[in-house]
Amino acid sequence: MAKHGFTTSILHADRRNDVEHGAVHKPIHPSTQYAYADSRELAAVFQGKAGFTYSRQGTPTTDALDKKISIMESGVSSLSFATGMAALSALFTTLLRSGDHLVASQYIFGNTSSLFGTLQLLGIEITLVDATNVDAVAAAIRPNTKMVFTETIANPGTQVADLKGIGELCQSKNICLIVDNTVTSPCLFQAKTVGASIVMNSLSKHIGGHANALGGSLTDTGLFDWSTFSNILDVYKKGPATGWGLTQIKKKGLRDMGGTLSSDAAHRIAVGAETLALRMDKICRNADALTRYLAEHPRVAKVSYPGLPNHPQHERAKELFGNRYSMLFALELVEGIDCFEFLNHLQIVILATHVGDTRTLALPAAHTIYYEMGPALRAQMGIADSLIRVSVGIEDEQDLIDDFAQALAKC
Ligand SMILES: *Cc1c(COP(=O)(O)O)cnc(C)c1O
């Protein structure tokens, strides 16, 4: 089949895999178990032949979504989970062991940071570093370093990791590199291009895109040689080594831990994914217009957005993400304006957590999603008490500018 563009490939992915009755969507399969007329066939599927047994390990509907995610990320195979956090916890707990070392960006999603606390209690050593600087990552590598983890554009400070530098470093040292691509999505960035081993996406965000389903995914890019990774159990060393990592995550992480994506959510996410590129285009244009407007506003002290020329990693972001900078920006108002008061004046923008929705959302980050981590970690992540996180949606551009303008005028 000829290689088609991003959107064409997603729209026609189900049909290319022989969807039932000529339907244009893979149907929602609610069945918990799958029956076999021949007991030998049932045994064969249990022993590794492609097929379905019990839905905790996937259904035809989640499988169809997994295939689309692999297309989007140019990966070898993908595995979906009930949430992004289910994907991350399955990944870390099944590939790392007590005594292993993980180097991670200090600029990360709050719940991932909290998960790292749990991993440390289980005996996994973690060093947090400034991932905008590859030298800081290199300096943290030890003989027992098994993995490096980073996001692309960090939430909420919008720091852009040195993805190229980190990719080269990990490849030269044969260290497994995990990239959380949630904020950029495969539409703006394929982490495979910088040598990532596994790409994680929260499907709840851009890919689903409509705030009506939770999900998460892991994609193996095929670049990492799992035969060199000492934590793969012998029972999963079957077939080409490129598949071993995800096989172990599927068995130990999905089957045993049970954070399974439902067929219903998989369907909603797959429908959402059909318009990912269209939404992303509008989101990036809205965020560009809004941040340029706010950066000039006398009541605004600071706007952090990788698309603004004064952003410390603007040039890097431009090169990595094709001159588009996604939905996320951080806003700080001038001294004397209370961030809560400002937020309460917004009329279109919704005061809610979540990012990557079709609707524009805002919240006071230090007092909400980053409250539990405390002031010391917040300072390390560059989160000021007054910082407002904004996730830009697809509303009409002028309506968004007008909403911010009227709220600022009232402060
Ligand atoms: C939301 C998010 C997650 C977690 O995803 P859920 O689907 O909400 O569990 C992980 N990483 C980043 C960067 C996120 O924004």
TrEMBL record:
Keywords: Lyase, Pyridoxal phosphate, Transferase. GO terms for molecular function: cysteine synthase activity; lyase activity; O-acetylhomoserine aminocarboxypropyltransferase activity; pyridoxal phosphate binding. One of its GO terms (biological process) is transsulfuration. It comes from the Bacteria. InterPro entries: Cys/Met-Metab_PyrdxlP-dep_enz (IPR000277), OAc-hSer/O-AcSer_sulfhydrylase (IPR006235), PyrdxlP-dep_Trfase (IPR015424), PyrdxlP-dep_Trfase_major (IPR015421), PyrdxlP-dep_Trfase_small (IPR015422). Transmembrane segments: none annotated. Its cofactor is pyridoxal 5'-phosphate. The keyword Lyase applies. One of its GO terms (cellular component) is cytoplasm. The modification N6-(pyridoxal phosphate)lysine is found at residue 205. Belongs to the trans-sulfuration enzymes family. This is O-acetylhomoserine (Thiol)-lyase. It comes from Jezberella montanilacus. The lineage of its organism: Bacteria, Pseudomonadati, Pseudomonadota, Betaproteobacteria, Burkholderiales.
